[in-house]
Amino acid sequence: MADVNITVDGRKLTAPAGTLLIEACKSVGIEVPSFCYYPGLSLQGACRMCLVEIAKMPKLQTACTTVIQEGMAVTTASDTVHQARKAMLEFVLQNHPLDCPVCDAGGECELQDMTFSYGASESKLIDFKNHKDEEQWSPVVFFDRPRCILCYRCVRVCGEGMDVWALGIQNRGALSLIAPNQDDHLECEECGMCIDICPVGALTSGAYRYKTRPWEMNHVSTVCLHCADGCKTTLGVRRQGSGNQIVRGDNRDKSGINGDFLCIKGRYAFDFIEHPDRLKQPLVRKNGTLTPASWEEALELVALRFREARDTDGGASMGVIGSSRTTNEENYLLQKFARLVLRTNNIDHHRTADFPAFVNALSGRAHATASMRDVLSAPAVLLIGNDPTYQHPLLAWQIRTNVRLHGARLYVVNSWPIKLTRQAKEFLQIPEGAEDKAAAFLAGDDSAADALLTSKTTREKLAGFREKLQGEQNLVVIFGSELRGQELAALVRAAARGAKYICLGDHANSRGAADMGLYPDLLPGYLPLSEAARFGEPWKSVPQQPGMDLEAMVAAGKERKLRTLYVVGSNPVARYAIDPFALAETFVVVEDLFLTETADLAEVVLPAACAYEKSGSFTNTCGDLQLLRKAGDCEGVKPDLEIIVRIAELMGFDIQQLAPLDPSGMRADFGESRGVQSGEVDQQAIWNRRQGYEPRVSPFNPFAVLKEIQRVVPGYNVGQLELLSGNDVHTATAGRAPGKTEADRFILPSHENLFTSGTLGRYSDVLNRVIEARLRLPNEKEKEIAAD
Amino acid sequence: MQFSDQLEKRFAELQTHYPIKRSALVPMLLYAQDEVGHVSDEVVHEIAARLDLTDLEVRNVVSYYSMLHTKPIGKYNIQVCTNISCMLRGAEKVFDHIRQRLGIGHKQDTPDGLFHLEEVECIGACCWAPAMQVNYTYHENLTTEKVDEVLESLRKKETQ
């Protein structure tokens, strides 16, 4: 669009036609105050705080609803404007209580700031203030009517942003109030966007209220550890007893791929950290029962038994199960540990999507994977299977926002009308389980059409759908775990003309676990075992035979051929409904946060730090790499990275071959709450001196591992600077050698929804307390009706 | 929920008046209130379903308008205008008189469920002030005597 020239406070500025005056002012650093205006939401013009003088216009105008015009001369800081804003504040404060000292928002309240700037601290009104008692609408949402300034931000973000429409305005004038959809409580997605967006303390969070004051917290930006979307979350931490305690999650600085979006899990579900059942001491089985033990005792036992098994029966008798929730560095190191230290390829993890087939299908095509950011800007999106609203909340937010703000065209193929069909331009309802056929049909296989016909889907509709898709350029194609192997490959190969793809896995680092080679037949970067040597000299000893997958390991356990099983941050016994007796003769070591069904069978249980308690990196399901920063502390636990290295060291392995020692040491991560009182830093220094290393060097430095990953894993050689400044960097897939691509029969979708998150979800008080967790999902209801 | 045939016909016709479905909301609420007596939860739910709105959205609108009632009210809704023209011509006296005669105040009902009293803003009858509206019937140039006659006739109508 053509540019428009205007003058603001004597400064000339140029902005594209159609820009709102308030945004144009912001672009040159002139802040026009506002409560109701919020970028990305519809215009309200309710608060009248953004009044400015515009030459030749008779009255003050609202900058938030005025579109700039050529030659406009604007004054934002005259006496008239100041007076008008001050008067508006007096109005707003008419019924506003003076409880700032106990209000959660005090210290980061926009009304406070505004009152301070305009000095509207005196009121000419002598009437009593309207009072209404505080209400609790859900375990996470509290509403304090008197504090509300009726800016409608919450109503709009809930409706337009989330497409939930759970908040409304009732009554009129001074008696207006925000109302929840179920009279006295909320039934919604409990995302907490309304609380975060509230400029004052009218909506407060059940998880955070009255816990601390904003200025008492430090803020740590890290990556959410729940689903695979990789939202950046800013954790508010406060010094407490044994270290830092996480008291709040939000993303108000809007950095990161998620802007200000977070779902209930990202915002509140960090509470499992302080669950009383959290493991804080190693457990060793003695006389049949798991008994608390010291770290030394537990680690020495593990190392001893691992070495025995390896030296007598060889690596083939040992298994390793990795995690889709541990960091890339830990996953990389774990498979390196399995392959170099245990000398086995028996390594697997809970697979939730067919990433190997995906990467293979894309080989040779540069820039063919879409990042989470692309979903917000793509002109068209095709979604096959999955239900992002519940399984990938950020993805759903990106799609909704793209449709709403940029007019993107959304095409949905699903077996039932998922919530996103409300944004869809075209919806193709197919029989359940026919996603692979749909992919084949869209890829050009007409014979697949027969399997797709339903009462709502005719042959004409199918053909029309495909034709429209073929007309789309720069399409982003998103599919869930329903698509695997051949069909996935066919679909990816069929679409062209700038199409980009996203393959949806389920957990925070599902993609990272796959990328880091937690496969019995694939090395990091999906390289075949024959290419092990390219990772360096020690890798030449890696066995060329593919190892056992999870199923084979369990079978070997039954035949008493699996001597040890090392499970890191995974609960295969519950996930795969493994017969507990299959592992009766196996020495099982489990690293986890809680005593899971798998840990319950273990000989040794090692308490691990969660992703909020360590540094490292995660790769989201789109392939966006982001750094984790340590936020909280938990006494007694260690990061998996440290545990792996310590076991290797106790096994007599030269740890320099396992964990790179980086003398530039940016920030060694010691995991557990460190500091003078624990003495661990000193111990580390002594260890360093004994080994002849520089004092700052640590073998537990995730950044050093990340450097190695960037050097050796194809696709991960991305810029350090972007990463370190907290940005997401898209990893590449093209150029990788094709790995194994047979249809992956071990893929087990976790079927997480908004209120579950595997083991972590089970121990999250918030996720268990919201009523929606007990309600059936729309698709379940739908299926029930269909079955009737 | 099923409305009378006449009302259903009216609703069907209303739908054709507006380019956007939800525009029919306010007239639908008024007509439904006339038939049912008040805007019950059932009415809210039904109209929401018909207009593809949430119940909450309908309640937002209902709570905005003082002429929509969510609870049953007396059969005859006496709305006395006390806006400026009526006030200058003695509306407050009229209103006080009715209050005393019926023993009820603003937005209250007589125990027999016959009358509901409301003090309202301008009803557009300034030329004949003071005026009041009983349901949809206007009574103008009011005096206390005239009010008594109106109340009496309504009561008589009811006992017959």
What does this structure look like?
The complex is a heterodimer of chains A (788) and B (160). Chain A has 788 residues and is an alpha/beta fold. Chain A folds into four domains: 3-92, Ubiquitin-like (UB roll); 100-205, Alpha-Beta Plaits, CATH 3.30.70; 283-342 and 526-730, Rossmann fold, CATH 3.40.50.740; 355-504, Dimethylsulfoxide Reductase, domain 2 (3-Layer(aba) Sandwich), CATH 3.40.228. In chain A, the strands form eight sheets. Chain A has a seven-stranded mixed beta sheet, with helices on one face. Chain A has a five-stranded mixed beta sheet with strand order 2-1-5-3-4, covered by helices on one side. In chain A, strands 20-19-18-21-22 form a five-stranded parallel beta sheet, covered by helices on one side. Chain A starts with a strand and ends with a helix. By secondary structure, chain B is an alpha+beta fold. Helix content of chain B is 48%, strand content 12%. Chain B has a five-stranded mixed beta sheet, covered by helices on one side. In chain B, strand 2 and strand 3 form a beta hairpin. Chain B starts with a helix and ends with a helix. The mean pLDDT of chain B is 94. At the A-B interface, strand 8 of A face helix 4 of B.
Approximately how much beta-strand content do the residues of chain A carry?
A: 15-25%
Structural class of chain B: alpha+beta
Query: What is the general shape of chain A?
Result: globular
- Number of helices, counting only DSSP H or I runs of 4 residues or more of chain B: 7
**Rg result of chain B:** 18 Å
Q: Widest sheet of chain A: strand order?
A: 15-14-27-26-25-16-17
Give the proportion of residues in helices of chain B. 40-55%
In CATH, the architecture of the largest domain in chain A is 3-Layer(aba) Sandwich
Major sheet attributes of chain B? 5 strands, mixed
Distance between the termini of chain A: 55 Å
Structural class of chain A: alpha/beta
Helix content of chain A: 25-40%
Number of domains of chain B: 2
Radius of gyration of chain A: 28 Å
Return the average pLDDT of chain B rounded to an integer. 94
CATH class of the largest domain in chain A: Alpha Beta
Q: Considering the protein shown, what is the CATH homologous superfamily of the largest domain in chain B?
A: Glutaredoxin
Beta content of chain B: 5-15%
